[in-house]
Structure formats: C-alpha cells, structure tokens
What we know:
Layout: E1 2-6, H1 10-22, E2 26-30, H2 33-42, E3 47-51, H3 59-68, E4 75-79, H4 84-92, E5 97-100, H5 105-118, E6 126-129, E7 132-135, E8 140-143, E9 146-148, H6 152-163, H7 171-178, H8 187-200, E10 206-209, E11 213-216
This protein binds calcium ion.
Amino acid sequence: MRILVVEDEPALCAQLVEAISAAGHTVESAGDGVSGHYLGEAEDFDAVVLDLGLPRLDGLSVLRRWRGAGRNMPVLILTARSAWHEKVAGIDAGADDYLAKPFHMEELLARLRALLRRVGEHASAEWRCGPIVLDTRQARVQVDGRPLQLTSHEFKLLSLLMQRKGEVLSRTELSEHIYAYDSDRDSNTIEVFVGRLRRKLPPGSIETVRGMGYRLVEAGAGA
Ligand code: CA
C-alpha cells in the first residue's frame, strides 16, 4: 500500500518511514503542512499519518482542506499527549483514528493495519491469488503453504500485483510504487524484478501484456 507521513520532527519522521516501509508499504513523507497538503491532494495514498503540530500549515487545516476537496483516504492523526481537545477537533475535521505522542511504533503499525483493513474490499489481512497467500500483517508470503523468501522490492511488487489482481499494471506504475524516493527510477529494472519474482511464483502467475505491462492471475486458471 502507499502511505503518506506528514511529520515535522526529522527523527520521528525517519522512524515512521522506516517502520512503515519495513511493514511492506511504500512511504512518502513531508515535513510541513503545505507540502504535506500538496502531496495528499496531488497523489493517491491508501492512508495518511498526519501530525497536527506542523509548520507553515497546521495538521487540522491540512485535514479540513483534504476533506473539503473530497479526498477521503483514511487519516491517522498524531496529537500531543493529553490534548484531548485536539483529538475531538481532529475527529470533527475528518480523522479516522488518532494516537497521542509519545507512542510505541508497534501500536502505530497496528492502528494503520486496522485503517487499511477497513478500506475498500480488502477486509481480510490475507490476500489470496490461487496458491499464493500474502499476509499483510506479517509481510509474509506463502505458496501452497510453504514460505516464500522475497526481497523487499519483490515483496512490494507482489503486494501491488495482488492488491490489484487481474488488472494490467504498467511498468511506470509498478516502478512508482517500488521506488518512492529514487529520483532516477528506471522502469527497465522493473522487468528484472518481475523476472525474479516470476521464477519464485507458480508458473503462469504473472502474465506479460504486450505493450501494456503485467497482470497477476491465478496460476492454472487459464486466464
Ligand atoms: Ca510536530
């Protein structure tokens, strides 16, 4: 999934990015309200972690502007400890959940998982495609009940393909999800990652759609 983190404290922001990436997501971050607001309006995210105390534009205003513009991605706000009025104001402004600082990263990840589970059709923490099962909580993959070792790039690639199983995804789309930070992302390397992933999955799982991209199908379903 694609997550946006808006947090002005550099150390905390880096910790959030690291922990959420390690959970298998693609993370983008912003260190102030103006750039955070811009990213959340210009790009699609599956969820947002939004600090309320931000320079240039405070978090509540960011949230109100998103909601006012019809942006309805789930938002988890970070509030100052014991500032109950902030929580109330945040919920009123359209936050889906809140967490008071300081918090344990494990709790943040659990809240984020709950938010992502509530979204869309992925009510389960496990995604399936034929014999392939991806556990979004543990960031683990099994094929026919046997664990599959994947690199983080391969995992991100498979997550996106499974999330949008049956849909054709372009090389550009796949590389945007894999290299959130790389300025020199190269869509040719996607072919290399797809090739490696393909060799680890049951034959026929990843179809190449000439001139368009790739699609995940149930192996042996003849699709
Ligand atoms: Ca802050």
